[in-house]
Design a protein that fits this description.
Shape: globular
Structural class: alpha/beta
CATH class: Alpha Beta
Oligomer: single chain
CATH architecture: 3-Layer(aba) Sandwich
Distance between the termini: 24 Å
CATH topology: Glycerol-3-phosphate (1)-acyltransferase
Order of helices and strands: EHHEEHEHEHEHEEHH
Strand content: 15-25%
Largest sheet: 8 strands, mixed
Radius of gyration: 19 Å
Helix content: 40-55%
Number of strands: 8
Strand order of the largest sheet: 1-2-8-7-3-6-4-5
């Protein structure tokens, strides 16, 4: 299944001022949505019957739907366009979804596409008043770099949950190749049934680590998501002790993404 936005007609949609206002409205909507989830939606969901797992599943599905609504809002208002190749292969039990991280809203796209996925998110979001409520309700995992985090991520995969993770740990700096930390490879070896890479490209760059939200590019942004071929972590687990296998898998993933991103750059018009 390939997903793509329909072209937005009207030259006014490409105007800088319009896109700046639409971007401001998008961020305001995101913040208000986070507060609404925390103060209204999740307390109502908590009143529904079911065990902790059922409540967690409802919370994740709710966040996923709202994230996808947010993506569509940005597309409809002319902030961005997108295309997604291979989305039907995301969300399988015990699947670890690994992606590069060029922009702030990469995770919004991926969670929007995978309704029941778990996700490793940066620790600072747990103290943000707009995001801490949804994170606690969904049971997402804080990326605090501890052994407990690695155990929680591996256990989630063993439990059959899809898991989204960005091995860079932070957004890629523009013009530089991604730099992967070995933690993602260690998690995959300990718990993943399969590992699926997602190559993300943003053109022109926006919402990078060095760019505030209001510094929008001179033209509308296009997000491209391409789901790569599955990788069996056990082929690396058989190549030696855990630290050595983790290093080999991490090197393989790093080289894979560098190669795929370079090919995308060469094929770009």
């Amino acid at each position: 299944m390939d997903l793509a936005t329909q072209p937005v007609t009207g030259k006014h949609r490409d105007a800088y001022l319009w896109r700046l206002l639409a971007t401001a409205a998008s961020f305001a909507l995101f913040g208000l949505g986070g507060l609404c989830l925390r103060l209204l939606v999740f307390p109502l969901l908590a009143c529904l019957p079911g065990d902790a797992q059922a409540h967690r599943r409802r919370a994740r599905q709710t966040v996923s739907r709202l994230f996808w609504f947010f993506v569509r809002f940005m597309a409809r208002t002319g902030v961005l366009t997108y295309d997604i190749q291979g989305a039907e292969r995301l969300g399988r039990p015990g699947q670890m979804i690994i992606a590069n991280h060029p922009s702030l809203i990469d995770v919004v796209f991926l969670i929007g596409l995978v309704p029941h996925a778990n996700c490793v998110v940066k620790q600072s979001l747990w103290t943000n008043p707009f995001t801490r409520g949804p994170l606690r309700r969904t049971g997402y995992i804080s990326n605090d770099g501890s052994l407990e985090m690695l155990d929680a991520a591996a256990d989630a995969l063993k439990d059959g949950q899809p898991l989204i993770i960005f091995p860079e740990g932070t957004r890629t700096r523009p013009g530089q190749p991604p730099a992967f930390h070995r933690g993602a490879a260690a998690i995959a070896l300990r718990g993943a049934r399969l590992l699926t890479p997602v190559i993300i490209k943003v053109s022109p760059t926006t919402l990078t680590k060095a760019e505030p939200w209001y510094r929008i590019p001179s033209r509308r942004v296009h997000f491209s998501f391409r789901v790569g071929a599955d990788i069996d972590p056990q082929t690396f687990a058989a190549q030696g002790p855990a630290p050595q296998a983790s290093r080999k898998l991490n090197d393989h993933l790093h080289q894979f993404f560098i190669k795929e991103l370079a090919e995308d750059e060469r094929s770009a018009p």
